[in-house]
């Protein structure tokens, strides 16, 4: 008896192996129905802590909790059949020690079934990345603009406009690459630096505001869908205008309710005739 081929999700190793082969397609995902759609087109889905801003209305990602990441990680896992799913470690869940990072990374993996975790940081996090990877936790790094450091870095500003900043990012990339991250997000930095890092590191570079030179690209899904309009970073392109679509639908609904044209006869139950 032959067993039917099982649809398997991309592993972190599969993602890393795409470097130099073809561009890696990734987006953030937070819910089951949207993950189902994205799963048809993306290699990697990131349950990003940006959910605090785009789903919960927080001003920054600092207030995001483990419980929020677990709930949305579980939702995305129910919708993803082939994409690699990575869940963000939220602010405060890994910076204290490598042991704390391991404990929370394992909790994310056990409670959601995800394929690995993402954490922000460069040289200062290299020891933690090495600790996790050597103990079975695939790590997606994140360097350049690090949103969880918004309160010490002077806001959401692109990085690498001075030699000193470029040197720091270069060292950060090297440190987490050598620590064993299978891939790294490079966020908000200048093109020549992103290109140089991409050609020097072993891990796959996934850019957001880091030029087309990276091994792949990621965007916050609510940004590219035109659903989040509180601010629009230079690196965002709207591939749809869903906020306008929703506004029109709700406005039409309100008009029909007021005019009593909705619900119509086809939406209304009548008593079934007796047989
Ligand atoms: N919806 C959303 N999209 C994101 O890309 C995102 C989040 N939320 N939340 C977490 C972080 C915050 N990010 C941000 C937020 C704002 C800018 C921004 O407005 N940047 C300006 C100024 C750049 C500069 O001064 O150098 C820009 O024009 O891009 C960039 C990244 C990226 N991440
Ligand atoms: C913007 C992406 C890379 C991210 O870190 C997030 O969604 O939190």
From TrEMBL:
Positions bound to Mg(2+): 49, 88, 120
Its job: Catalyzes the reversible reaction in which hydroxymethyl group from 5,10-methylenetetrahydrofolate is transferred onto alpha-ketoisovalerate to form ketopantoate.
Residues noted as binding 3-methyl-2-oxobutanoate in the record, renumbered to the chain: 49-50, 88, 118
Gene behind the chain: panB
Family classification: Belongs to the PanB family.
Lineage of the species this protein comes from: Bacteria, Pseudomonadati, Pseudomonadota, Alphaproteobacteria, Hyphomicrobiales
Keyword Glycosyltransferase: no
CDD domains: KPHMT-like
Entry note: cofactor: Binds 1 Mg(2+) ion per subunit.
NCBIfam families cross-referenced by the UniProt entry: panB, PRK00311.1
Designated name of the protein: 3-methyl-2-oxobutanoate hydroxymethyltransferase
Biological process per Gene Ontology, one example term: methylation
